[in-house]
Design a protein that fits this description.
The protein is mainly α. Helices cover about 65% and strands about 5% of the residues. The protein has helices spanning about 15-30, 45-50, 55-65, 95-125, 125-145, 150-160, 165-175, 180-185, 195-215, 220-245; strands at about 70-75, 75-80. Helix 4 crosses helix 6. The longest helix has 28 residues, at about 95-125.
């Protein structure tokens, strides 16, 4: 896949480095090299060992913390936690009726936003393309750090709609509001659900594929990438519906 172009291209995406470090630490824990109660090597030691920046190490630790594997203790370091007896469900406080309705909405969005991405590939201005890139970068950074990413996700889709230069597309997305972001729309209180790391990584890759196609001015691929992203979302929520019933 073509690398996303930002102002200063990096040799390797930060997300890839974060995943590499986090996965290496997970492997050590599973093999008993870092046991429950052990303190992980310091940030400086991990930075030197993996040859990455402090930011990458912090984001990797944040990902492990999100998975309930480690616990930072102020002034003492980061400690390995004992594995829980039961795996935490990735979706909690979910309204099943909302999931069914959400799947219907995703089907509609697949048709509308597929064409929006195609038009954005053809009609975008340099400034509009920059907004799409900025929204993607914010989404990728939030995802890598384990922070809520729904707002950045919405901004990405809205920036694409605006880049069609047909105001009706943006009006459609704004009309949907919170329903546009599935992991927020399925809960009763509107809070963002926690996705497994593998799903987060897949979402980032899907968004990147859409961005690259738009940057390349590839109408067909932009439509295909957007449709694939939303169809994959449908599949994820259909699977969730089966598990939760």
């Amino acid at each position: 896949m073509t690398k996303v172009t930002t102002h200063e291209p990096a040799p390797l995406p930060t997300t890839t480095l974060v995943v590499k470090v986090a996965d290496a630490l997970r492997a050590r824990m599973s093999k008993g090299h870092h046991k429950p109660g052990d303190r992980l090597p310091s940030e400086a030691q991990l930075t030197q060992e993996f040859g990455v920046s402090r930011t990458v190490v912090r984001e990797a630790i944040a990902a492990l913390r999100s998975d309930g594997l480690v616990e930072p203790r102020q002034g003492a370091g980061v400690f390995v936690l004992a594995p829980t007896l039961a795996t935490r469900r990735p979706f909690q406080n979910v309204d099943l009726a909302r999931v069914s309705s959400l799947i219907e909405m995703l089907e509609l969005r697949t048709a509308v936003e597929g064409d929006a991405a195609a038009l954005a590939a053809l009609r975008r201005s340099p400034g509009q393309e920059e907004k799409i890139i900025e929204a993607f970068d914010a989404f990728r950074a939030s995802s890598a750090e384990g922070r809520p990413s729904a707002e950045a996700d919405f901004a990405f889709h809205l920036a694409i709609a605006q880049a069609t230069n047909n105001p009706r597309f943006a009006e459609f997305l704004q009309m949907l509001g919170p329903t546009l972001i599935p992991r927020r729309a399925v809960t009763e209180n509107g809070e963002e659900t926690t996705l497994p790391l593998v799903d987060i990584e897949r979402l980032v890759d899907e968004h990147e594929a859409i961005l690259v196609a738009i940057q390349n001015g590839d109408e067909t691929q932009a439509r295909s990438a957007m449709r694939a992203h939303l169809k994959n979302s449908q599949a994820r929520y259909r699977a969730m519906l089966r598990v939760l019933r």
